[in-house]
Amino acid sequence: MHRLIHTQFWLLLLIGFTLGFDAGAAAKAPGRQDWQQMRSVIAAQLDAFKRDDDVTAFSLAAPSIRSQFRTPSNFMQMVRTGYSAVYRPRSVRFLKQLMVMGRPVQPLEIVAHNDAVTVAYYLMEQQRDGSWRIAGCSLKDSAGVAV
Hints:
The chain is of the alpha+beta class. The protein has a single domain (about 30-145), classed as Nuclear Transport Factor 2, Chain: A (Roll). It is built from 6 helices and 5 strands, in the order H-H-H-H-H-H-E-E-E-E-E. Strands 1, 2, 3, 4 and 5 form a 5-stranded antiparallel β-sheet that branches. A hairpin with a 4-residue loop joins strand 3 and strand 4 (about 115-125). The two termini are about 25 Å apart. Residues about 1-10 and about 20-25 have low confidence and may be disordered.
């Protein structure tokens, strides 16, 4: 129970800082099709990382992320150095999605090549055209190791 509360608190802080605590911007809960689209976007970005396709990976990030890193190569360099778990995972498993402060979050269990298990929390953002983009990703190391 303590671990669950700690994780929820951590997610609230992460999302709050990422979004500037703009509670008024929260949208309605996504439907089943939306969650499927979000998973497809995340899977496409992970696939782009495997191919070192920085242009595609960058295109799947939300506008706020793209403006922060400015170029696909800057974005890919950040992923290589700070997000190696998602850059080259050994395996990925989508976990049950959740809403935090009115924002959709898709967690993934990632097993790295060294068998370390990490949970990646993908903050998703719906665009004006209805598409979904990745607005942030936070990694939380697990105490577990894949066997």
